[in-house]
Design brief:
2 strands, DUF4209, about 60% helix, 3 domains, two-stranded antiparallel ribbon, about 675 residues
Length: about 675
């Protein structure tokens, strides 16, 4: 692995030239009064005159534009430095309100007064994410479905209608286009070190944001529109994100030492690592994670490029190529060859856990998707939870440890570090569809197991309660369930393989818990697996909904019965419900067990055993149809319990037939 100390920049020569030199080539002194009126308004015409266009197709000539705008940016930076905080607030505070985060832009002004490179980089990252979010809100004044990518948002007709195309072209010189300065991407993906980002570009974006606020006010007055800000994303179920123990001062002090020693850290980037740890200690959790995520990407890119023998990918790609980002580093293949990144992690378990953690926290749709949501301005930075920051910092510490020299072995064995290493190596995905399905079936089974505790009508209140146990329909249902369980038992743990009462002893929460503890590979799931999972999850969700409806209806009807508010027809229907649910319970439990057994075998079959995929999906969809109909029949509005039993009988016949033909995954896997 190439020494991290030997890498002086992650910017390719052309990109380094564009960001660090091009805007300094013109030495002219630009008069701020050319672009700023006496009453403090941005003179946009004077600004847009500095954007140059290609003669061939009239598209933006980014090189000439950056060169021309360089002195303008310097003039704006000097102007801001000449203002006191009070003067800046009086002149500009009003024009930042459209962003819904005025305080952030006032903070960026403070940062520019001292030109601390790490703070400028952080301020620019926060500014661009907030600006993107605000521009998305403006887009929704006219359009629907705001573009996910900043470059598409800035190129949209909707924003051109509000601000003018010339104004949008100015913005694209600084952010959103890979042909321009592209400040947002080079920072958020960790390509630029703090000293490589000129403070004057941060000042210019601050200035332009105020100017956009002025243009927007004019547009809103003319159109009588009201700008509505989308609500922030809120992290729910924070307990699901708890992987590592809470970090204390001692752990953070060791982390600061590891930053100096670890080969995972580029020397040019170490100030950002230290700033991230400082931010955590100061309870600035959003700042901490914003600083740290790009550094994790840099460190992994260093490993990725070394192990895959593609050192050129350590640098920013040109506009015609893709950046080497998290998505590609976590992929199974690289240009039709196997990605060698896991090899450098030595232990397969560690490699798998590393990727599962990153996929969970960054990529999976049902996970927190921390980087996306931070970089696109979807999270309230003022209320960023410590719990999330704790996980990212702890994970980063394990990487610092893993890629440190042998002479820091004592750090790895330290009493506060070793638990972190253990947590990292044993991590299992929590947000992959497989993991979510496990959670679903357990919640569904837990709900169904509440049924025996539901209140029921005392025997003395029932005059004509026809017990189903004695009739032919009930006997047929019980027999079919027992036969299916008998066929399934060979695929279950040994201690569930023999019993006089298979329904009570096999279809249990304990069995599901044991099956769900089976480790299933979640990395690189092929499309057939993902498609099967979608159907299995829908079936599981429907089973849970049926259970919740049964619970609600049973409790309501019991109260009405005891209060004698049920009409004669309702009383008879209530009794049919009580009789029906005692047989519906084992059927729903059977389906959840079947789903879980299929899940346990899902990858094995798709990888090693060719099977009739279409026939299998057809079977699953028929089970899904049954559960969807159950939801309808057992709803408070329908209460069709005779139809429920008839439907259940048909579904069991189909499940038994499929099982007889050995078309389930568990059967194909043996």
């Amino acid at each position: 692995m190439k020494s991290s100390d030997s890498i002086s920049t992650c910017l390719s020569p052309p990109v380094h030239y564009v960001i660090c030199k091009l805007g300094f080539e013109k030495k002219d002194t630009y008069d701020i009064n050319n672009i700023l009126s006496e009453n403090g308004e941005v003179c946009w015409r004077a600004v847009t005159e500095h954007v140059c266009y290609l003669e061939s197709d009239q598209s933006v000539d980014y090189i000439k534009s950056i060169r021309s705008l360089g002195p303008v940016c310097e003039s704006v930076n000097l102007h801001f430095k000449s203002l006191t905080k009070e003067e800046f607030v009086i002149q500009y505070e009003l024009w930042f309100r459209w962003t819904n985060y005025t305080e952030l832009f006032l903070e960026v002004f403070d940062v520019l007064q001292y030109t601390q490179t790490t703070e400028v980089a952080l301020g620019l990252m926060k500014l661009t994410s907030c600006l993107e979010r605000a521009l998305g809100d403006v887009y929704l004044l006219i359009g629907k479905d705001c573009p996910f990518l900043l470059r598409d948002l800035l190129a949209s007709e909707q924003l051109a209608v509000v601000f003018g195309q010339a104004v949008m072209n100015v913005l694209r010189v600084f952010i959103g286009s890979p042909y321009g300065l592209n400040l947002r991407n080079v920072l958020w993906h960790g390509f630029a070190s703090p000293q490589e980002i000129p403070a004057k570009y941060c000042a210019m974006l601050l200035f332009l944001t105020a100017g956009l606020g002025q243009l927007l006010q004019t547009y809103l007055l003319q159109t009588k529109c009201i700008l509505v800000h989308r609500p922030y994303v809120i992290f729910v179920s924070l307990e699901e994100l708890n992987v590592f123990p809470d970090l204390n001062h001692e752990t953070l002090s060791i982390a600061e030492e590891l930053v100096k020693l670890s080969s995972f850290v580029l020397k040019t980037m170490s100030p950002l690592w230290m700033a991230a740890l400082t931010a955590f200690k100061q309870s600035r959790y959003a700042d901490c994670v914003i600083l740290l995520l790009p550094q994790l990407e840099v460190g992994l890119r260093l490993l990725f490029t070394a192990t895959n023998k593609c050192p050129n990918r350590m640098l920013t790609a040109e506009p015609s190529a893709l950046y080497t980002t998290f998505d590609e580093m976590l992929a199974k293949h690289l240009d039709n060859e196997v990605n060698q990144l896991p090899a450098v992690l030595e232990e397969p378990a560690m490699a798998s856990a590393l990727k599962e953690f990153l996929w969970d926290f960054l990529n999976h749709q049902e996970g927190p998707r921390i980087r996306d949501r931070l970089s696109h301005g979807e999270i309230n930075l003022k209320a960023f939870p410590r719990e999330v920051a704790n996980q990212i910092v702890a994970f980063a510490i394990t990487l610092l440890c893993r890629f440190s020299d042998e002479d820091v072995f004592a750090f790895k064995e330290h009493m506060v570090i070793k638990p972190l290493m253990n947590c990292a190596s044993s991590y299992r995905s929590r947000f992959h569809p497989i993991s979510r399905l496990k959670k679903q079936v357990l919640e569904g089974m837990k709900s169904i197991h509440l049924w025996p505790e539901l209140p029921t009508v005392p025997e003395e209140h029932i005059q004509t309660n026809k017990k189903l146990e004695g009739n032919a329909e009930a006997s047929t249902l019980i027999l079919m369930i027992s036969e299916i369980i008998s066929q399934l038992q060979r695929y279950m743990p040994q201690n569930y393989c023999s019993s006089d009462d298979p329904i009570s002893s096999v279809l249990t929460e304990r069995l599901l818990t044991e099956l769900c503890d089976t480790r299933i590979c979640t990395l690189y799931s092929p499309r057939p697996v993902l498609e099967i999972l979608v159907v299995l999850r829908k079936i599981s969700a429907q089973c849970h909904q049926v259970s919740e409806q049964v619970i609600a209806s049973t409790e309501l009807r019991y109260k009405q019965w005891m209060n004698k508010t049920l009409r004669s027809r309702q009383r008879h229907n209530y009794l049919r419900m009580l009789n029906s649910i005692q047989f519906l319970s084992p059927v729903l439990r059977l389906i959840l067990v079947l789903i879980t057994l299929e899940l346990v075998n899902i990858h094995l079959v798709c990888k090693k055993n060719p099977f009739d995929y279409q026939q299998y999906i057809k079977f699953l969809k028929s089970v899904l149809q049954y559960t969807e109909n159950l939801v309808t029949y057992t709803s408070p509005e329908k209460n069709k319990w005779d139809e429920t039993m008839e439907l259940t009988n048909k579904a069991l016949i189909k499940i038994r037939k499929i099982s007889d033909r050995k078309l389930t995954l568990m059967q194909l896997a043996t």
